[in-house]
Specification:
elongated, 180 residues, two-stranded antiparallel sheet, mainly alpha, 2% strand, 32% helix
Amino acid sequence: MAWTDEIVEQLKQHWTDGKSASQIASLLGNGLTRNAIIGKVHRLGLAGRSKTPSSGASRPRRLAPPPTHRVAGPSLSSRAPQIMRGATALAIAPQTLAEVEEPEFESVVLPMSLRVTIVELKESMCRWPLGDPATAEFRYCGSPTASGPYCAYHGGLAYQPAQERRRDRDRDRARRPALR
């Protein structure tokens, strides 16, 4: 398609009127595309456009509030609910602090471990690893065992009955909101 003087003048007029490149392409027709319009505008140097009254007035800039130093501790004010935008079909509903269930703390007595190295480890000693194996401080529990590789405490951590796992999993699923 050849750019005639008449089409170029129409392009300039539409461009200064503030029309978009897509709108100009549809108005001019002749198989012109949005990209063709943009290319011609740049070649002609038509960067300036007339602005609409709403976009002509610049909005005042928001300055970031000065950083405040916060002290760790409980918050005394309640937060306003957050507004969710977009596709919220699978969004997790926010819970207020009053709805959150406090976990029950069990009275757990940790056994005193002997903290032995692999060289000092005997057959009837707990083989529960303590620390990072890549460091020199790595040790094993070393507490006496009745049967198996771990003491009673670490055996309880290592071996959890399937029924308890199933019950915990079902309880966690019941706490989550149903996604339907």
